[in-house]
Amino acid sequence: MTKGRSYFARWLYQEPGKPMRAATDWTRGRAVGDFNEVSWGKDGHIGPQFHKNTKICIQYKGAATKLCRSLA
């Protein structure tokens, strides 16, 4: 990533035994120093509830890999 440039990102999820699904459209992030910050949703609101072992991923537009974590 280039410092000072904003990028588009989306988040995806994969519940156990199901295919990967895009949860959001591409959202423009904003450059914050050396980082790119992207926000989905509103403060104070409860987000979606997922099952244990669901994989949550962030994908930047144009990037070949996704950043993923599994819920414990």
Question: Your description of this structure?
Answer:
With 72 residues, this protein is mainly beta. It has one domain (8-38, 51-70). 0% of the residues lie in helices and 38% in strands. It has strands at 8-14, 21-22, 27-28, 30-32, 35-37, 55-60, 67-70. The strands form two sheets. Strands 1, 2, 3, 6 and 7 form a five-stranded antiparallel sheet that branches. It has a two-stranded antiparallel sheet with strand order 4-5. It starts with 7 loop residues before the first strand and ends with a strand.
Distinctive features:
7 strands; two-stranded antiparallel sheet; 72 residues; five-stranded antiparallel β-sheet
Oligomer: single chain
Shape: globular
Please tell me how large the radius of gyration is: 13 Å
How many E strands? 7
Determine the strand fraction and express it as a percent band.
35-45%
Summed up, the domain count is 1
Approximate helicity band: under 10%
Order of helices and strands: EEEEEEE
N-end to C-end Cα span:
30 Å
Unreliable parts: none
Helix/strand/pairing class, anyone? mainly beta
Largest sheet: 5 strands, antiparallel
Q: What's the tally of helices?
A: 0
Determine the mean pLDDT: 83
